[in-house]
Specification:
Layout (H helix, E strand, L loop, with lengths): L4 E5 L2 E2 L6 H16 L7 E4 L1 H9 L8 H16 L2 E2 L5 E2 L1 E7 L9 E5 L5 H9 L2 H18 L6 H14 L9 H19 L7 H15 L3 H10 L7 E7 L10 E6 L11 E6 L3 H6 L5 E2 L2 H4 L7 H4 L1 H18 L3 E8 L2 E9 L4 H13 L5 H7 L5 H5 L2 E2 L7 E4 L1 E4 L2 E7 L2 H9 L4 E5 L7 H6 L2 E4 L7 H9 L3 E3 L5 E3 L4 E4 L2 E4 L3 E5 L4 E4 L4 E2 L5 H13 L3 E5 L3 H9 L5 E5 L7 H12 L3 H26 L4 E4 L14 H10 L3 H11 L11 H6 L1 H22 L5 E5 L5 H22 L6 E6 L2 H5 L1 H4 L5 E4 L1 H9 L7 H9 L16 H15 L4 E4 L7 H9 L4 E4 L4 H18 L1
Helix pairs in contact: 4-5, 5-7, 6-7, 14-15, 14-20, 15-20, 20-35, 21-23, 22-23, 23-27, 24-25, 27-28, 34-35
This protein binds phosphoenolpyruvate and magnesium ion.
Amino acid sequence: MTDWVHTFGGGKADGTARDRDRLGGKGANLAEMARLGLPVPPGFTIATDVCRHFYAHGHALPDTLKREVEQALDALERLTGKTFGGGEAPLLVSVRSGSRESMPGMLDTVLNLGLNDRSVEALAAVSGNPTFAYDSYRRFIQMYASVVMGLDHASFEEIIDRVKEESGAIRDGDLTADHWRAVIAGYKIAIVDELDEEFPQNPGEQLWGAIKAVLKSWMNPRAVTFRALHRIPEGWGTAVTVQAMVFGNMGEGSATGVAFTRDPATGEDSLYGEYLPNAQGEDVVAGLRTPHPLTKEQADNSNLVAMEDAMPVTFQELRDVAKRLENHFREMQDIEFTVEAGKLWMLQTRDGKRTARAAIRIAVAMAEKGLIAKTEALRRIDPASLEQLLHPAISPDVERTVIGRGLAASPGAATGEIVFTSEEAVQATSEGRRTILVRPETSPEDIHGMHAAEGILTIHGGTTSHAAVVARGMGKPCISGAGTIRINADKGIMLTGGRTLRGGDVITIDGTSGEVLLGALPTVQPELSGDFGTLMEWADEIRRMKVRANAETPEDALTARGFGAEGVGLCRTERMFNDEERLRAMRAFILADNETSRDEVLASMLVMQKADFLEMFEIMRGLPVTIRLFDPPLHEFLPRPGRETEQVAEAMEIDPDRIRQKAEDLHEINPMLGNRGVRLAVCYPEFVDMQARAIFQAVLEAGEKTGEKVVPEIMVPLVAYERELKFIKDRIDIVAEAVMKEWDTKIDYLVGTMIELPRAAIRADKIAESSEFFSFGTNDLTQSTFGISRDDAGLYLNEYLRKGVIDRDPFITIDVDGVGEFMQMAAERGQRTRPDITLGICGEHGGDPASIAFCETIGLHYVSCSPYRVPVARLAAAQATLAMRAQQ
Ligand code: PEP
Ligand code: MG
């Protein structure tokens, strides 16, 4: 290997696929293909070190580069039997960029380099095709003038148009060699006119101009932006590959195309792609002509001739090369090729992009064939992409009219008529109409509307807002925090993107992208194929952490089990008070002005809650179920001021002023920092007694019914002081004693706490004295660690993300440095006091792959997430285990 330049061709290469850091993805894979003896036009790659040198030394090239390039060119001439820019058989080259990661279309390329007034004639003679030769020359001048000399395209277009007009030609393809000569003459004049310099005739000068231009394109604005978006370090630099040209535009028997070794949409094991007869690569990209299908199978529903029919021999060769490449790289490849006068040439190969469905099918098929290990198959699937498969998605090929944007709060697509209240949603559903519930934000009052609607759109709230969390639990698409949309529910209008929409107008929401779209768009239903199941089984064999679900309704619990949940990690009991009867009871409890009437309400609640828990235990059949005591501030259960309050008062047969007074009494400036969680439990311990009794009675009944022993995990939220927890645990123990005595039996149960406040993390060793498990409530822990509101932070966090102040939304992915530090501290301190303490997470992060990877590193025993994310978590947990093993 020389210092800067690495040659390839003729069955040999100075470099391999492993050298992508130095040779770029393209250069490294060309070297690899050459080594494999595949038909690769020979050439050489200037390493990325040169790019770094170029920028470190004020655009100067290393001293020895010139000599190395000259030597490589000599070798190239020998290998091809052609002469660079001259002789009877002129050697023409392409000069292409190539970075470590693909940056499609961001960097520059020059083709047909080496053509000049003399070599074009030689090319015309050897090819026997003057039209092709002069067309190639004018393409080169056009590209070179624009990429290297910085001339605007527009003047060239005018020149071609003029020649076409004069000659009566309609398409470029109608022009002859003489026409192209006229075009070339026009181009040269335009260059002198505009730049005051001649188009260079010396091939050496052309080459160095192109090499420098490609290096400079590394810092062009679109490349800089692309790198920022994809986190590609500037220091990587681009390689420059100089390669002998082959021509797909030499007439009949020539072509250029792209191929995937498997169908990138479905993953089917058959060659898939497009080609253009008699064309150069850029024609495929430019989209001026419609490409033809590669295979007969693809050609089925088109009237274009497939390559398989048009060039059967070359096609067979392409198919063989494709298989060889796939087997060699053990990955689906995306290939560029050219056929020059019947001979196949490979120009590029790289790992192909694919849909989630195809990714699974390909990985499973390759592992089953023994091409890759099962663990590798698991590593290759992006867990988050699985969500695409679990929810209906908008058909990929329909046009979208985006009328607003918000946070992608719960994935999937839903279409329906706009409704502004939950009552309308319920009404419309009962009439068989589909709706999208559009609200400023949602509250427990809206559950029935959210259930009825196809999807939910809220103006306020983040990704852990009520709407987002509930929608994810229900598996319904949801967009939250769509701050640019204005609604006026009284007038029944919604203003967005300069449009006024009314109740009844149809919109589609894409909860996967956060886009609000006009009209009804067709969707495709999920298909949980056999490959999906296979992949999940493999994940289960590997992963260490268990996966539980956050669920409080029988539907949620059933969905969760269907997706493979191994228990319930969070049952938010307040959500069990959403239906009308429960809400009424809750309000009666809040409004009760003496102990007797409160006891009456609690007695009725006990019956309801016991039934709830019984159902949950029956569905989960002996799997662990973590039931969290009532958590949110009470005011959330009172009706909104105005009409709603009057209606509720009327239904309860009380004076609306009583409700207003109570709302005022309960009013807090910062309810999220207010009387909620364990604080409520301390203020209303009789409520805790009721919930504990309901749990224990349900345990006993479920055990009798199912024959499976139930060990409930009772969880106390928002604990900060160790004595808060002790106070509540004592109450629970007393109730347990009483129930055991009444039933004359023994009940095993656990009492534990959520760790969702910094103080709890700090005092975890003390808290663990009365806590048999910890579950990290990372929604609140993030809120309280940062001191930002989980419901409103979307506004400025989006700005932070856009301006690069933060890389990730801490409510979506755990902030490892801060919140994560608290988690690790709590885990360690908790284990110090109680080595066998169970550790889990139940905040929304429990379904986020990056956060799950972190949970593995601190040794949590399980993650808990919304039912639809259970498969995501199963795979992410397996990947986390693999990553830990790789580190050890
Ligand atoms: C949490 O805070 O992370 C949590 C799970 O509880 P909630 O979202 O109900 O506050
Ligand atoms: Mg919480």
